[in-house]
């Protein structure tokens, strides 16, 4: 059974092997510390790893995390399926606009897996078929060195505008730090995804805790009021 996906999104860690190694840690050590600190989701983004290496890392991280938070695999649907076949507690995949098509990915991973999709334009959000994608990752909010092929950061105002068009819960991504969280939550994001804020931190547990506390400290925006009934809808209710 898929858990309520919004519970997984508030502080979403995306891993980077190089950044963790530069701090003298493995990805597994970093994830363990970050989960202890309060991250709510982990995405394994092993861009420099072979399929075999990413599978091994996925098995180790899934064993270390257990059922504390969902573990997703970036891009590699084959690695996710193989880890699942091996009995690992992996929750799903995150794919981008140039990765495998969304509908086929959903068909392959099944209805219970979590499926995340990157989106950066209103058109990409409008293209989402209801029921296929569980959440979207929107960015980059700020410019980032972590993803060299990402465009320049578009800013918090842009993020606050585009999130209103997301048909599913959204996490922001790109250069995010604790100071961004209040504005993102107020704008309606369900969470913030970070790489360097945790992977490059001297103390990843403390970094995760600071982000989790900052997110929890701010109220979620009040839900939008139900629209006033129009004359036509009031009449149709009376005749039905
Ligand atoms: C939560 C989240 N949002 C966006 C991305 C970016 O995915 P993508 O556009 O496929 O780029 P790569 O991460 O594959 O380089 C993400 N990974 N996670
Ligand atoms: C994977 C990804 N997608 C858009 S920006 C980004 C990298 C974000 O990394 P950081 O949090 O270190 O800026
Ligand atoms: Mg991708």
From TrEMBL:
Cofactor binding comment, as recorded: Binds 1 Mg(2+) ion per subunit.
Residues the entry annotates as binding 4-amino-2-methyl-5-(diphosphooxymethyl)pyrimidine: 43-47, 74, 118, 147
Annotated Low complexity bias: 229-240
EC number: 2.5.1.3
Residue span of region Disordered: 217-240
Catalysed conversion reaction: 4-methyl-5-(2-phosphooxyethyl)-thiazole + 4-amino-2-methyl-5-(diphosphooxymethyl)pyrimidine + H(+) = thiamine phosphate + diphosphate; 2-[(2R,5Z)-2-carboxy-4-methylthiazol-5(2H)-ylidene]ethyl phosphate + 4-amino-2-methyl-5-(diphosphooxymethyl)pyrimidine + 2 H(+) = thiamine phosphate + CO2 + diphosphate; 2-(2-carboxy-4-methylthiazol-5-yl)ethyl phosphate + 4-amino-2-methyl-5-(diphosphooxymethyl)pyrimidine + 2 H(+) = thiamine phosphate + CO2 + diphosphate
Cofactor(s), by name: Mg(2+)
Gene Ontology MF term list: magnesium ion binding; thiamine-phosphate diphosphorylase activity
Binding of 2-[(2R,5Z)-2-carboxy-4-methylthiazol-5(2H)-ylidene]ethyl phosphate, residues: 144-146, 175, 195-196
Pathway this chain belongs to: Cofactor biosynthesis; thiamine diphosphate biosynthesis; thiamine phosphate from 4-amino-2-methyl-5-diphosphomethylpyrimidine and 4-methyl-5-(2-phosphoethyl)-thiazole: step 1/1
Highest taxon of source: Bacteria
Family per record: Belongs to the thiamine-phosphate synthase family.
PANTHER family, per the entry: THIAMINE-PHOSPHATE PYROPHOSPHORYLASE, THIAMINE-PHOSPHATE SYNTHASE
Stated role: Condenses 4-methyl-5-(beta-hydroxyethyl)thiazole monophosphate (THZ-P) and 2-methyl-4-amino-5-hydroxymethyl pyrimidine pyrophosphate (HMP-PP) to form thiamine monophosphate (TMP).
Name listed for the protein in its UniProt record: Thiamine-phosphate synthase
Gene: thiE
């Amino acid at each position: 059974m898929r858990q309520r996906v919004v519970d997984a999104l508030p502080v979403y860690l995306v891993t980077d092997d190089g950044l963790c190694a530069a701090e003298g840690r493995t990805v597994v050590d970093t994830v363990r510390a970050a989960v202890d600190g309060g991250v709510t989701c982990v995405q394994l983004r092993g861009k420099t790893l072979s399929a075999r290496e990413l599978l091994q890392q996925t098995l180790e991280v899934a064993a270390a995390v257990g059922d504390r938070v969902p573990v997703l695999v970036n891009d590699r649907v084959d690695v996710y399926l193989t880890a699942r076949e091996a009995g690992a507690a992996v929750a799903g995949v995150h794919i981008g606009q140039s990765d495998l098509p969304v509908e086929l990915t959903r068909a392959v991973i099944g209805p219970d897996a979590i499926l995340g999709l990157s989106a950066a334009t209103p058109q990409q959000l409008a293209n989402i078929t209801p029921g296929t994608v569980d959440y979207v990752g929107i960015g980059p909010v700020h410019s980032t060195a972590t993803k060299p092929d990402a465009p320049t950061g578009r800013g918090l105002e842009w993020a606050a505008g585009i999130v209103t068009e997301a048909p599913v819960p959204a996490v922001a991504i790109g250069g995010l730090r604790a100071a961004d969280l209040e504005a993102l939550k107020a704008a309606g994001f369900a969470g913030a995804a970070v790489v360097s804020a945790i992977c490059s931190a001297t103390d990843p547990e403390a970094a995760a805790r600071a982000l989790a506390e900052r997110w929890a400290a701010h109220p979620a925006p009040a839900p939008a009021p139900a629209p006033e009934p129009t004359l036509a809808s009031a009449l149709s209710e009376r005749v039905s």
